[in-house]
Amino acid sequence: MRRPFDRVIIAVVLITAAGMILGCSRSKTVDVSFTVEGMHCESCSEAITEALEKVDGVESASADHAKGSARARFRSPDVSPEQLTAEIEGLGYTVTDVEITPIEG
Ligand SMILES: [Cu+2]
């Protein structure tokens, strides 16, 4: 014999599972481009690339000292553009512009 209480527990488990699945599918891939001041050579771009790639949730990153730009592809909401800006500025460079592009999937 099944008590009504069991049904409540089953309903809660199902709602929780559905929420987790929906929550996962809501995570998005995002491309972000930074305009960076202060890069002078190849080791500057390497330092920025490495710092961005080390962040959990970043799929790829690159930086170009000649163009004064950096970019990263990451999973949102695991990572935020603000967090990556802080990484770059933590190395002593200045981010003057941030451009965010959501990617399909
Ligand atoms: Cu340098």
Summary keywords:
single chain; Alpha-Beta Plaits; binds copper (II) ion; 43% helix; 3 helices; alpha+beta
How many strand elements?
A: 4
Question: Strand share of the residues?
Answer: 25-35%
Structural class: alpha+beta
Shape designation = elongated
Distinct ligands:
copper (II) ion
Rg, alpha carbons: 20 Å
CATH fold title: Alpha-Beta Plaits
Biggest sheet: strand arrangement: 2-3-1-4
CATH architecture: 2-Layer Sandwich
Helicity, in percent? Answer: 40-55%
CATH secondary-structure class: Alpha Beta
Average pLDDT, to the nearest integer? 87
Poorly predicted spans: none
Describe this structure in words.
With 105 residues, this protein is an alpha+beta fold. It has one domain (27-103): Alpha-Beta Plaits, CATH 3.30.70. The chain is 43% helix and 33% strand. The chain has 3 helices and 4 strands. The chain has helices spanning 4-25, 42-54, 81-90, and strands spanning 28-37, 58-64, 69-76, 94-103. It has a 4-stranded antiparallel beta sheet. A hairpin with a 4-residue loop joins strand 2 and strand 3 (69-76). The longest helix is centred in the first third of the chain and has 22 residues, at 4-25. The termini are far apart. The mean pLDDT is 87.
Write the layout of secondary structure elements.
Blueprint: H1 4-25, E1 28-37, H2 42-54, E2 58-64, E3 69-76, H3 81-90, E4 94-103
Antiparallel strand pairs: 1-3, 1-4, 2-3
Bound molecules: copper (II) ion.
Residues 40-41, 43-44 line the site of copper (II) ion.
